[in-house]
Write a structure and sequence with these properties.
Strands 1-2 form a two-stranded antiparallel ribbon. By secondary structure, the protein is mainly alpha-helical.
Length: 83
Amino acid sequence: MKIAEALVELGYTEFVVIGNNYEGIKWMVQPEIIPTKKQVEDMAAKIDQILQTRKAEQRALKVSAYKKLGLSDDEINAIIGAQ
């Protein structure tokens, strides 16, 4: 499980997670609304897909910017492929 990443995705920032499970969440500042175990675990299950989508979106933005600069597909792939 990716509990810390799930909490950040849910909008929480002031916590630590001990043991990478819901029971290990320790709030540095108690939030007004504490997410349920199901909410956190559901988001944790989606984290990899969310990160892959963001990475693809960032790549598309880079490609678009490089195309505006007049670079060829080979040149773009040479630049982005190394990252």
